[in-house]
């Protein structure tokens, strides 16, 4: 007998004093959720734990189980409410998440992460994930692209490696990526997650499923397992305004997907899928390399500026200590200028040291992701070669193995 | 037919210029590894990537597959070399790892982590983990205990959640915990990993399996799966000096375990195990709460000092700006003192702000772990109640469920 699961996802835009009508909107959200009684509610940008706690109180009877994922300075902003028992939770904080000095973008302080909760839905084990990736502030010149690609990479790694024991996998959240963006393709192709907007036979909501003015960046994705089939019967989004209320729930639209779980009927994943994956991972690797190059340049600039600050300090100390260096100037080194200059040198040294450390960490994370991707491509290519069954289906057969013996080196 | 797997683990003590005879010891290690040809080699404290690369070159024929796990400012120091194909790697960086200002302890800069590699050993999938937890500098007054307990918690979470698809799980590394330490019990009981030193029928090496002067803190742990049984046939450690060489390989002893994998024969895990786990997780939660309390105190101190620095700055500016505030002092505010005092105030403000941010992050991580532990205890207690099979084996039956209806509240 099939089991129906209603999943809800919303980026709550919960920045107190900055987001408009924050307390009123939380009240509306709480009211709606307790009425709608979704099975699983996935929220993002719940930046204040107080708001989570007040929602928890309000949803105590409709959603007795909940978890707030803590991470970073401010928090991850991620929360889950569930009708079903949560057995276990885990959180993975992305290794890259913008720059601390881009304070007006603020992502770094949020400690962006993916949260996971293991639920029992009837006799099935569901791994439910909620996440929020780094924002895209300028699509044409997106300096955060390598960071977001690494986040998408880590997200798919985390989901793939943690979901082997699950019957059902559900991911909801604000991916900050358009449907065909690299990170999105990487995530969906590698994990096999399906986009409920693309899968549903019946949709109600904004044109083209848009979730933020002009773009679709919020998703509910899902997949089954060898034991369980999953499909989407219906999906809807809010359409800006809310009947009988003066404002919308958030600056993003809310998503609801009605999923149906049932016993498995077998299917194939052929070599075409793997070949596509090799291409996407290779593209992602290129993007990460661009980021690496850029971070190396910035670290070099920080180091050079730091060395110049240090040289200036030494010079100043030398001039102050050895009077004849002042080359016959009549006045001694003015005290005020001396202290101001020294303070400036120290400030430069401190700032560049912190930046140097930060860029080093960024480089490590980028290199780490690049290493993992290289290894993954090698493994996928090997899988592709050893696809005897898939090759029978494939009309354009590759040349037999003996004819291309050393073209591929997994350790390159 | 059983498969034999030889696993090696060593903390390499690879701090150039600080560790004694570092290049010579790496040469010895490389020579020994290429001769011994272990299936899997797990190394810790390979702080320099150059050393990893030179080992990789030396082991190219004996161990064609390898990975270096990047993380943090310096790196995780973790590396794996394998005779078998590495299909996938993943790294989880612990959310807590000491304090940046304890620079002489240095752990914070290392970005301590757990690295994972998915190997194919024959037809079996092996998840191999390598890790290095925060050092214990003073056993009697160990201020890092909450951090290490959270690391052990995250380690068991990571292994449990990522190993559902594996036939075999192997963990090697420097846990910096004695065999009966809380974190060690937490790790072994929750994951079901067995200690090869305790399991082996045949051991050669230092008395009581010691791996660092007077203590046993390095381990090779393992477990099978519903499909695969695993046992340890033989284990050995080095005994300090190495024949024909002037120094030992490292300040730690090297561990070798010979594991045997074969098809599964079923066994039970009863309610005793779960009850023990509830006790251990509860104990860990207490330890984390102690850390929470301590971090709260330190954050409060940082905030108070920052406020005082700010007040001092305001006072100074006021005195300088409004001469009559100087209460009839004859001299004006001396310029040198003014700048020195202002610089001091700024330094205090900057330091306390950074510390405040750092302690906030620490608090979030501790709270996050505490939340996860509370949830886990709830889930385990529920499992314990619903153990109909186990209760039949258990001579001391618990009272029937009706008699203790509301004693347990999972959401407390």
UniProtKB/TrEMBL annotation, chains A, B:
Its EC number is 3.1.4.12. GO terms for biological process: sphingolipid metabolic process. It is a multi-pass membrane protein. The chain crosses the membrane at residues 307-326, 338-359. GO terms for cellular component: membrane. Pathway: Lipid metabolism; sphingolipid metabolism; Sphingolipid metabolism. Keywords: Hydrolase, Lipid metabolism, Magnesium, Membrane, Metal-binding, Sphingolipid metabolism, Transmembrane, Transmembrane helix. It is found in: Membrane. The keyword Membrane applies. Residues 9-252 form the Endonuclease/exonuclease/phosphatase domain. Belongs to the neutral sphingomyelinase family. This is sphingomyelin phosphodiesterase. It comes from Labrus bergylta (ballan wrasse).
């Amino acid at each position: 007998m099939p089991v129906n699961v209603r999943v809800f996802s919303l980026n709550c835009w919960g920045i107190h004093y900055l987001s408009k009508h924050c307390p009123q909107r939380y009240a509306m959200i709480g009211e709606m959720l307790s009425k709608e009684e979704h099975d699983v509610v996935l929220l993002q940008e719940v930046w204040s734990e107080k708001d989570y706690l007040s929602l928890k109180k309000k949803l105590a009877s409709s959603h007795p189980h909940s978890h707030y994922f803590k991470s970073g300075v401010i928090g991850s902003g991620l929360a889950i409410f569930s009708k079903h028992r949560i057995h276990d939770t885990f959180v993975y904080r992305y290794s890259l998440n913008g720059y601390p000095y881009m304070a007006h973008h603020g992502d770094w302080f949020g400690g962006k992460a993916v949260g996971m909760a293991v639920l029992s839905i009837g006799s099935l084990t569901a791994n439910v994930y909620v996440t929020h990736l780094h924002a895209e502030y300028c699509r044409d010149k997106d300096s955060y692209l390598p960071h977001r690609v690494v986040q998408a990479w880590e997200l798919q790694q985390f989901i793939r490696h943690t979901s082997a024991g699950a019957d059902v996998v559900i991911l909801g959240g604000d991916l900050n990526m358009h449907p065909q963006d690299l990170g999105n393709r990487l995530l969906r192709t590698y994990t096999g997650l399906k986009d409920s907007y693309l899968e549903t036979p019946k949709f109600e909501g904004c044109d083209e499923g848009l979730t933020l003015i002009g773009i679709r960046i919020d998703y509910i994705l899902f997949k089954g397992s060898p034991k369980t089939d999953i499909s989407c019967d219906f999906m809807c989004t809010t359409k800006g305004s809310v009947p009988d209320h003066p404002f919308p729930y958030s600056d993003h639209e809310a998503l609801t997907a009605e999923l149906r779980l049932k016993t498995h009927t077998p299917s194939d994943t052929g070599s075409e899928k793997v070949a596509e994956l090799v291409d996407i991972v290779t593209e992602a690797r290129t993007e990460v390399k661009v980021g690496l190059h850029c971070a190396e340049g910035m670290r070099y600039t920080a180091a050079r500026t730091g060395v110049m600050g240090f040289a200036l300090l030494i010079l100043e100390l030398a001039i102050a200590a050895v009077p004849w260096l002042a080359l016959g100037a009549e006045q001694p080194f003015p005290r005020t200028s001396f202290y101001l200059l020294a303070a400036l040198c120290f400030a430069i040294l401190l700032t560049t040291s912190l930046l140097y450390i930060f860029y080093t960490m960024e480089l490590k994370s980028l290199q780490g992701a690049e290493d993992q991707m290289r290894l993954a491509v090698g493994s996928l290519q090997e899988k592709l070669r050893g696809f005897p069954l898939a090759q029978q289906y494939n009309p354009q057969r590759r040349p037999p193995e003996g004819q291309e013996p050393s073209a591929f080196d997994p350790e390159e």
